[in-house]
Amino acid sequence: MKRNLLAAALAVASVAAVQPAVAQDLTGTLKKITETKTIVVGYRESSVPFSYLDNNQKPIGYHMDMCNKVVEAVKAKLKMPNLNVQLQPVTSANRIPLLQNGTIDMECGSTTNSVARQEQVSFANSTFITSVKVVVKKNSGIKSLADLDGQPIATTSGTTSVQLIKQNEKGANINFKEIYGKDHAESFLLVANDRAKAFVMDDILIAGLVAQSKNPDEFMFLPEILRTEPYGIMLRKDDPQFKALLDETVNGMIKSGEAEKLYTKWFMSKIPPKDVNLNFPMSPLLKEAFANPNDKGVK
Fold first, then answer.
1. pTM exceeds 0.90, yes or no
2. pLDDT (tens digit, 9 = 90+) per residue, 40-74?
3. Contact, 188 vs 159, CB < 8 A?
4. Residue 20 near residue 26 (C-beta atoms within 8 A)
5. What DSSP string describes 59-71?
6. What burial letters (b/e) apply to 218-257, b meaning 16+ CB within 10 Å?
7. 174-184: per-residue pLDDT in tens?
8. Is 140 exposed, middle or buried (0-12, 13-18, 19+ CB in 10 A)?
9. Which residue in 117, 231, 258, 260 is deepest, having the highest Cβ count within 10 Å?
10. For residue 245, which of 105, 59, 111 has the smallest C-alpha distance?
């Protein structure tokens, strides 16, 4: 009897030994995904061309394509080909809280990787480098930051770009009134409708909004660059397993040339829904980031 029990115990142990050990060893987001059989991708509704809605209200864009690649990598690593993929819209204001509380597992939008944000979240290696600039109407009479004194300036709730004006030599002594939009599209519309004189945001996001506006030729950038910032896919802090998978995926896309092809697709070609071409060549800074992948945040 004892011999039979011992044999049974050994058989159970043997079966357990050949079961995938991955689930037992997982932590953080990957463990959560195995338990829920679901990965939740956060996306933006108007961050052209990174993450935005097409005519069918489907999220598309440069970062959405990259995040789809991450999802495939997760499926492969966890051996879950039928993993449920949920898409969750987020805003500048709620993207970090929704990541921290587990509502989303990664954010595929247009979020700047900053040292301050790294205290709350983590980022995969940089996938884009942007410059913060100011857009105005050509007929506004505003030619530089100094001309913004006393003027209403649009800013998106949950962003900090407008604060950079004060850090610039030409903007240090000016006073202005902030008018908030719920997202970048609404903030830009404040300028288009003359409720604000300027909109401060990342140049590529502004370029996307201008290109899809009714009268693109009405707008221009002011000459000053307020700051240069890296973008990256955002994930929860202190999650080394998931971060390693994201970095491996991003680095693989860079090394294979797929990242450059995606750049051409979204920044140098006609994109939906209006078939406009942003004609935004890859900057030397982004080429450098691709040559030496890193997750360094801006101060």
1. no
2. 999 999 999 999 999 999 999 999 999 999 999 99
3. no
4. no
5. EESHHHHHHHHHH
6. ebbebebebbebbbbbbbbbebeebbebbbebbeebbeee
7. 999 999 999 99
8. middle
9. 231
10. 105
